[in-house]
Known about the structure:
With 240 residues, this protein is of the alpha+beta class. It folds into two domains: 13-47 and 69-162, no CATH class; 181-237, Roll (Membrane-bound Lytic Murein Transglycosylase D, Chain A). Helix content is 16%, strand content 29%. It is built from five helices and eleven strands. The model is unreliable at 167-179 and 233-240 (pLDDT under 50).
Amino acid sequence: MSTAVPKSVTRAQLTIMEPPSTVGAExxxxxxxxxxxxxxxxxxLRKTTEWRRTPSRMAGQSALPEFVGSGPxxxxxxxxxxxxATHDNSVERAVKQLMTACVPTPSSxxxxxxxxxxxxxxxxxxxxxxxNGVLTALQxxxxxxxxxxxxxxxxxxxxxxEASVDPPGQNPTSGxxxxxxxxxxxxxxxxxxxxxREYGDATVWRTIAEANGIDDxxxxxxxxxxxxxxxxxxxxxxxx
Length: 240
């Protein structure tokens, strides 16, 4: 189990922010800040890359892999909460703050573009684990209760997936509009945002919609894998 953070030690904290109001924008204002009572005992950072091989029956060895693209960073950590010294409601208050990162914000609902808040872990000078992301999973395990049933200890397991948007037109496969890749949907994604990220033009989202048989550009189920076609590929399909 982690130990309490001495005053001389840098304290880790979670910041929950309003999601961007427009495609490509930075996150909005701060919704909540949760200084961690105990610094994480471990952080699990993960990043994936996708490769494609084209089999050849004449080849004596396996075909060379073709780089398709890189996936977002993901970060897993446990947050330990303890109110045994105070017997107050601080454990439940912290859990409620974390749960706000799992539901659309009132501002995004008012814009009719529902999106959950963005979240970031900040801990000293660490840069590999400090990035803007969305909370894809939250599990709370209460381990100690007061005589009235009030939770006094809890362990919160968080999974954060990177949500930052790359500069327009910078596809990792070739940096051009002709690149073809796939994209796994995360919470808050929309086809205009993906089109801006891949092609540098949010108005061509129909290219991705047609390739995947999507009618509603805003209704994307997290975890769905989308094909991101080349612009010229879609043009060729439309020719007689």
